[in-house]
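A common beginner's mistake is to predict each chain separately and then try to dock the pieces by hand. The better habit, illustrated here, is to supply every component at once so that their relative placement is modeled jointly.
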Amino acid sequence: MYFTIKKECALVPDFPNFNPVKCSPLAGLSAPRGGIALQERPFGGKVNLRGNADDQAFVDAVNGVVNCSPPTVPNTVATSADYTVFWLGPDEWRIHCTEDVRYALITRLQGALAGQHAAVVDVSDYYVVMRLTGDKSVEVLNKGTPLDLHPRAFPVGRCAQTRFGHATVLLRKLEDNVLDLQVRWSFAEYVWLYIVDGTREYGD
Amino acid sequence: MLIVTCPWCGQREVTEFGYGGEAHIARPENPEQLSDEEWGDYVFFRKNPRGVHYERWVHTHGCRRWFNAVRHTVTDEFFGSYKPGEAPPTVPVSKG
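With all components supplied together, the output reads:
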């Protein structure tokens, strides 16, 4: 039985003095056990990009903005100094960046792709990223996902969209036993508590 | 655990997928010229075979792409997956 502490940041738009506040769906939730750590990542920019990877003009335009080509190998990640580009589909990618360059990235992408058959959508507020670390992290994760997480099938540097419980998640393996889970904002509490529940057997 | 092969993501468990029914049903070129019976056939009637079935799947929890697969409806054996527009794989005669 878990008790969810009342979210401290419940906000009521006090129009006309509407002052939006960043609100984490994970504030005050119980922590995992057994040497497993789960932490929400700082809020960052997330941009969905769609376009034709066979079109050199599209690849060049994206490359000119994020300094790496959108990966064409399924379930891989491309990185540059400021950006991480996830493969989501044969014509779809998600770009992560820090919050301060979020709007600049969108503006520059829109400018570079003007006139092309492409789409740039800001989904920064739509997803929450949490990082799972610890010796048992893969074991815990496999309680909710059917994905083969063995290093042979899911090596460091790969990403994969899969299912965790009832939620769709985007996994990224950064190091052995260090995994990022990106999940929809409204599913974040569910996934968090699912993982915490999964760590109970490993003790305090 | 039933494993379905996504043409893009590879082997994944069936719970990541959605099922889309029979594949290769072409929309009639001239629907206004069809009789009610022909239109009814197009909309409602499916093969429902006991054996090899060409069907549509969508990788809902993965790359969210539609693709086609060939499956035996009795044994659940998959004979291959292929992207839209590609030719279906050949099914061994003994399985057909």
